[in-house]
Amino acid sequence: MSNRLINWFKYASPQSFFPLAGKMIPYFWLLAAIFALAGLTIGFLLAPIDEQQGEGYRIIFLHVPASWLSMFIYLVMAFWAACGLAFNTRLSGMMASALAPTGALFAFLSLWTGALWGKPMWGTWWVWDARLTSELILLFLYIGFIALQAAIDDPRRADKAGAILALVGVVNIPIIYFSVNWWNTLHQGASVSLTRAPSMAAMMLWGMLLCALACWMYSIAVALMRVRTIMLERERHTEWVRALLADKE
Amino acid sequence: MHWNSLADFLAMGKHGLYVWGSVLVMAGAMLVEPMLIRRSRRKLVERLKRQYRAERSEAQAARPVHTRRSPV
Questions:
Q1: In B, residues 17-36, which contact A (CB 8 Å cutoff)?
Q2: Which of A57, A28, A7 is nearest to A227 (CA)?
Q3: Quick check: A229 and B30 CB within 8 A?
Q4: Do B48 and A246 touch (CB under 8 A)?
Q5: CB contact (8 A) between residue B45 and residue A112
């Protein structure tokens, strides 16, 4: 019986996770490329024009995935931060730090593509409405997390301080998600929802979902790349990092 | 295929600037991010190797002369 159980905690140690992550990265790149190719082909070559918004609506294939990922990465980051606080595992803090820059990038891209979509459709790059403002706060939370960690020299203390900031900031995620229902905003309501049928053509929906999957796989690949660098940096005094780099000489 | 010509495709109705402005920035960011990570990793590995070499030669120098290994 015990032989059949996989020891998951084995991979909670940086030494055994490092080579595993290295092996997984190319597969996630491959998946990201396949999903991106499929999603962009559907979104930009095959999907029909939108009745109300003309061709400009195609920004949706970038804007929605970027926005979803900016929120989802924050939740994953907060999850790892919480694990780090609760179990004091080394890897958790490293995962949280590895995710933050990618989350910040997607928050920025969400705002950027949103501005470029808002200008032709609403006539303005920016309004201080609930959806846009809470997404901007998300970007600031990411930047605050990165800056706070960078300001503390001891990595374990930096992890703890960052984790508390990340956990407090989680309250912002439902605010972003439900802002279009709770307040009267210029931003349109959800195009896709878990509780009702999507309000868009099947082709558009598929394009959007595939692009979102591509962004998801990209995020995993990039986060694994970054966590490996963080591992080398933080574990530089250990024998396994010395041995690893000695092999490469 | 939704488009009749390449010019049609590039024009995106009247929204070419907005659509391609989004595509270029997002694609650019997603190409640059992994490149930056690779660069910082390469720099870190170089720095650590230098540091380890320095530590090794320091440790050598600290030993009494008759126990030193001859350099390879």
A1: 18-19, 21-23, 25-26, 29-30, 33-34
A2: A28
A3: no
A4: no
A5: no
Whole-model pTM: value is 0.90
pLDDT per residue as tens digits for the range A151-201: 999 999 999 999 999 999 999 999 999 998 888 878 887 777 666 666 677
Residues in a beta bridge with A54? A50
Which ipTM was obtained for this model? 0.87
Domain that includes residue B46, residue range: 6-60
Q: Classify residue B70: in a domain, yes or no.
A: no
Distance from CA of B58 to the nearest CA of A (A): 16
Chosen for mutation from A219, A224, A229, A233 (greatest number of chain B CBs closer than 10 Å) is: A229
Split into its structural domains, chain B has a count of 1
* B71: in domain: no
Considering only CA atoms, which of A121, A108, A104, A105 is closest in space to residue A187? A121
Query: How do residues B16-55 score in pLDDT, each as one tens digit?
Result: 999 999 999 999 999 999 999 999 999 999 999 999 999 8
CA–CA separation, B23 vs A116, rounded Å? 10
B68 domain residue, yes or no: no
Q: Which residue has the tokens 């495709």?
A: B9
Interface contacts (A, B; CB < 8 Å): 90
